[in-house]
Amino acid sequence: MRFLLVEDNAKLATSIAERLTLDGHVVDHAAEISTAEDFISTADYDMILLDIMLPDGDGRDFLNEHRGRQDDTPVIVLTARSEVSDRVGVLDLGADDYITKPFDFSELEARCRAVMRRKSGGVTNAKRFGDLVFDSLAGTLKIGSKTVSLRNKELRLLEIFFSAPDVIFSKTKLVDRLFSYDEDVSENAIEVYVARLRRHISSSSVQIITVRGLGYRLSLT
Amino acid sequence: MTLEANISGSIRRRLTLQLLGIAAVLAALLFVMVMTYAKQVAEESQDNILSASATSILDSAAIQSGEVTVDIPYSALSMLGNVSDDRVFYRVMADGKYLTGYESLPDAYTAKGRENHRFITSHYLGESIRMVSATRRLSNASGPVEVTVSVAQTLKRQRETLERISTNAAYLGFGFFIAAAVLGVLTAQSAVRPVQTLANSVSRRGPQDLRAVQAPVPGEMAPLVVALNRFMARLKKSLTRSEEFIAEAAHRIRTPLAVLRTQAEIALRRVERPENRAALKEMIRAIDESSRAAGQLLDHAMVSFRTDHLEVKEINLLELADETLERLRPLAEMQDKTLSLHGEELPSIKGDAILIQNALSNILDNAIKYAPQGEDVKITVTHEDKWVVLSVYDQGPGFAPEDIEKLTERFSRGKNAEDTVGSGLGLTIAEEVTQAHGGHLKLSNRTNVRGACVSFYFPQS
């Protein structure tokens, strides 16, 4: 995904950008509203992350103008204040969601996905591998013409494998991507989810192969 | 802190006792006055009769052939003795020499009297007597002769009359005392009533209600009420200041915490060694705990502030729960937990939507946190008597029974929550919000299945 991060605290902005890059996202960083507007006029973003207190104005004014421009790019507001009244205010102004600093990146990702699912309005974003058709946004998986229902963690796991078929993912990496850090899980928990996913796709031409000592990869049989 | 007042005396008791004292003194005074007056009247009437009797005897005194003669008229003595069995004595003397009657009657020369009648109270033959002595000068050839007539009567009847009057006067005094005592008690009660009214209006207040007392009070109590109002204003100011301080502090902590958390996540992605990873995870958990605590302190400060100025609107609890749920759904999905809402259309409630939403999301947050991976959190909106009840059911370990009472206290966490991130203000916030709306919070464990249930009771509007 391509993010525009509008945040004036340089340290925080750098960390967030770096952290999102680790998950394979592209991040542009604007420290002020004017810079953010320049970015928006030259590029398309999947998501805007907006701080409320900015040096050259209030994030809420930016939101107002943004919606006035008929720009459909979803906006998630980053607030330091957790007051519900503030949050309700930004939602009324047209933000799609908000998240309180400091935030868990899995939560941010979950919120991004929820927002994008709402916004996509049925437009499919499906990827194919073998006879699997997977739409990570809509959360649907089809084997041929048969729809399989997956729970969230299974979807997320499949999404990771789908992002790079035939590439080996270590258990550690999978745990990092799949669980938030305040969930107390061991790496063996991954085995449970891999086993469930294997069961779901057992009738397809795709399988998850265990690479001893290294991890798992998604491959065609 | 002691909640008992240091009591020294009671205004009502003191006032009652003083009024009773005054009533007793007045009753005694009344008794004495009646008795004195009655005695005076009795004596006067007896004296008048004695005088008349003495005068009529004196009138019959005459000089006949140089000798003083007294022909005592029957009426003179009968007017004295016709009613009672009092005994009557008389004596006639001329120029100090005994003529007739009871010679040993006491002399009345020393007694004071009116004109030439002198009265004396004395004893004679073992009885108390009242005696009058009247003197008249008669002319004789050899010069004037002074004739003195003394008439005495025993005091038995007078005493009897006085006794009767005294009994009646005592009844009168006692009756007066009782009437005055009743009025006194009523007066004392009505005098302290404004104090009780004020005490009631202050004690009926909610815990956050620090408005000035507006109820009308008598002038004498104005200084107390003014002092009370000033004190509450000071208290409110210092509360507001500390809440603002907490809010500001929490706010300032959050941004650096966000940097720290993000950096820790990045580091975690880069390190391989299990002990380093464990340390970093510990760090992230600690950061989450601090930020949750900061968040809940902020929420709590906001709740405390808003309960003073409730923005009351008609609220559809079902819609509100749905909105709150939607907002938390991504969080639950992340952990493969399902949030479900059940309920029918219900009477609306009056309340502050932002407060209720805040309380509910705190509870839901807890429920999501404590529910085991892959299990569900259920929210129901129902109707119970005059209450609209919103319940959150989880499938977590439930509350320890001994904790249920004290869990809503600030910073109290259940025994079952030791390894989950949280600061323990969620239930406090929820309880304060329901109380501010005239409702209450109920904690219980689910029957039949594992899990806890938190119910918000709001009065229907």
UniProtKB/TrEMBL annotation, chain A:
Residues annotated as domain Response regulatory: 2-116
One GO cellular component term: cytosol
Segments forming domain OmpR/PhoB-type: 124-220
Pfam families in the cross-refs: Response_reg, Trans_reg_C
Protein's GO biological process: regulation of DNA-templated transcription
Ion transport as UniProt keyword: no
Annotated DNA-binding residue span(s): 124-220
Source taxon at top rank: Bacteria
Protein's UniProt name: Two-component system, OmpR family, response regulator TctD
Taxonomic lineage from the root: Bacteria, Pseudomonadati, Pseudomonadota, Alphaproteobacteria, Hyphomicrobiales
From TrEMBL, chain B:
EC code(s) of this entry: 2.7.13.3
Keywords noted in UniProt: Kinase, Membrane, Phosphoprotein, Transferase, Transmembrane, Transmembrane helix, Two-component regulatory system
Residues passing through the membrane, by range: 15-38, 169-188
Histidine kinase domain sequence ranges: 248-461
Pfam families: 2CSK_N (PF08521), HATPase_c (PF02518), HisKA (PF00512)
Domain of life of the native organism: Bacteria
PROSITE patterns: HAMP, HIS_KIN
GO cellular component: plasma membrane
Gene3D superfamilies named in the record: 1.10.287.130, Histidine kinase-like ATPase, C-terminal domain
Keyword Transcription: no
GO molecular function annotations of the record: phosphorelay sensor kinase activity
Keyword Aminoacyl-tRNA synthetase: no
Coiled coil: none
Compartments, record wording: Membrane
Domain HAMP: 189-240
Catalysis: reaction(s): ATP + protein L-histidine = ADP + protein N-phospho-L-histidine
Protein name in the entry: histidine kinase
Organism: Pseudovibrio denitrificans
Phylogenetic lineage: Bacteria, Pseudomonadati, Pseudomonadota, Alphaproteobacteria, Hyphomicrobiales
